[in-house]
Amino acid sequence: MVIGRNRYSVPCEFAGQMLRKRLCPGRVVVVGEDAMVAACKRLADEGLVRYDWQHYIPLIQREPGALRNGAPFQDMPE
């Protein structure tokens, strides 16, 4: 989801859907069908991307290796 000049990931099952954003001081909340879909710390600079590797778990369960060494998994804990 693009918010300002930054991009934030959402769970893959919500890709392509119309979602709403709520901007809070220091936080971004993404809402779909009256339920919170994602929330994360707001990016301070412009042109950045914030991934949450957990958003992509259903995708890699269906297609193992689909995102091997992909950007969403660079910050994944051991």
Keywords:
three-stranded mixed sheet, three-stranded antiparallel sheet, mainly beta, about 30% strand, globular, about 10% helix, about 80 residues, 1 helix
Q: TL;DR of this structure?
A:
The protein is mostly beta strands and 78 residues long. The protein is built from one helix and six strands, in the order E-E-E-E-E-E-H. It has one domain (2-73).
Distance between the termini: 27 Å
Mean pLDDT: 87
> Count of DSSP E strands?
6
Rg, rounded, reads 13 Å
Biggest sheet strand order reads 1-2-6
Q: Could you list the spans in which at least 5 consecutive residues all have pLDDT below 50?
A: none
The general outline is globular
H/E element sequence: EEEEEEH
Main sheet? 3 strands, mixed
Strand pairing plus helix content: what structural class?
Answer: mainly beta
Number of helices: 1
Return the domain count.
1
Helix content: under 10%
Beta-strand residue percentage: 25-35%
Overview of this structure, please?
With 78 residues, the protein is mainly β. The protein has one domain. 8% of the residues lie in helices and 32% in strands. The chain has 1 helix and 6 strands. It has one helix at 57-62, and strands at 2-3, 6-8, 20-24, 27-32, 35-41, 49-50. The strands form 2 sheets. Strands 1-2-6 form a 3-stranded mixed sheet, with no helix packed on it. A 3-stranded antiparallel sheet has the order 3-4-5, with no helix packed on it. Strand 4 and strand 5 form a beta hairpin. The chain is globular, with a radius of gyration of 13 Å. It comes from Paraburkholderia terricola. It holds the Pfam family Mu-transpos_C_2. InterPro entries: IstA-like_C.
